[in-house]
């Protein structure tokens, strides 16, 4: 087993000619794709991995300097593709991994045939001409809450982000994976995500981009998906689903899985 494979808990399932790479967002791990994977493995070679810092990875491998920007995660994606000699893939990125995929595709466009995103945002902070959903003061309060009492913060954050019924399995699942992160790593990662501004990179994306979004998402307003589509340098398509929450593939799989499969299987002219 190679270092990259071990560090990221890489799993390869199925044996199709095309490869689909599934990349998870903050506070989750590869298990967030559990409803999608069974629908892919008969048709595709599926690559699952954990982002460094996820509760399932060894915290000793987390390099705070390397992961002080999203480029570190993008280099990890490229390293995984290279280690497994994947010459091209359909990259499915949730939340922060959507932008990680975009960065990786700018560096190595040859490795990506298209990027399918769920709950993607290039910037979470509002400014005078852009609405990302958050003011700086709100984010500072969030960071302080993470720092002060991580367990308590997890309990409050999970239901807000997932949405829906407080007792849902999806909320329990997200709470579990969020709580599994080491608190200092979680704080560092969430600060990098919420304070990043990747808008300047969008025109450099040359790979077709499929933007899938919940109608109601606490973290990513619908206008962000329109902004993404209008500013990418590549062909793009937006589909807003009648779902609620930032992890719809976990909370509303009956709605989301057919949508994801359609975007994975078909090109932009849906």
From TrEMBL:
<dbReference type="InterPro" id="IPR000073">
    <property type="entry name" value="AB_hydrolase_1"/>
</dbReference>
<dbReference type="GO" id="GO:0080167">
    <property type="term" value="P:response to karrikin"/>
</dbReference>
<feature type="domain" description="AB hydrolase-1">
    <location>
        <begin position="20"/>
        <end position="257"/>
    </location>
</feature>
<dbReference type="GO" id="GO:0016787">
    <property type="term" value="F:hydrolase activity"/>
</dbReference>
<protein>
    <recommendedName>
        <fullName>AB hydrolase-1 domain-containing protein</fullName>
    </recommendedName>
</protein>
<keyword id="KW-0378">Hydrolase</keyword>
<comment type="similarity">
    <text>Belongs to the AB hydrolase superfamily.</text>
</comment>
<dbReference type="Pfam" id="PF12697">
    <property type="entry name" value="Abhydrolase_6"/>
</dbReference>
<dbReference type="InterPro" id="IPR029058">
    <property type="entry name" value="AB_hydrolase_fold"/>
</dbReference>
